[in-house]
Amino acid sequence: MHSLRTAVYLRNRCAKGCTGVEVMSNDHGLVTVRSAHAGLELRPTELLIFGKARGGTPLMQDRQTAGIDLPLKALAWEDAEGTELLVGKAAS
Fold first, then answer.
1. Could you give the 3-state DSSP secondary structure of residue 11?
2. Closest CA to 87 of 47, 44, 35
3. Which residue from 25, 38, 56, 90 has the highest number of Cβ atoms inside 10 Å of its Cβ?
4. pLDDT (tens digit, 9 = 90+) per residue, 9-59?
5. Burial state string for 11-38 with b = 16 or more CB within 10 A and e = fewer than 16
């Protein structure tokens, strides 16, 4: 099962030189914090954004519309039962 802990592992692994991609952005749970500041409740959620110009640029050179799917993203969250999940969107 994938989890918030998996998201943290991916972030740390890529920060240390994951082959081909790097973490471009990580909200470190900021989505959850900002929701609370707005008076809204959101279970733990973390957004990771991955990419690397050396990987994305050739894809866009070959098929420029590939840019709509870049950068790659993963979302980790905790559901109502406390199960931690990780999802990403398949490129089209």
1. helix
2. 47
3. 56
4. 666 655 555 556 566 556 656 777 778 888 888 888 888 787 778 888 888
5. beebeeeeeebbbeebeebeebeeeeee
DSSP characters over 26-55? E-TTHHHHHHHHTT-----EEEEEEE-HHH
φ, ψ at 3 (rounded to 5°): -155, 175
Integer Cα distance of 65 and 61 in angstroms: 9
DSSP letter assigned to residue 83: -
Sorted by where each starts, the structural domains of the chain and their CATH numbers stand as 4-87 (3.30.310.70)
Contact criterion met (CB below 8 Å) for 48 and 73: yes
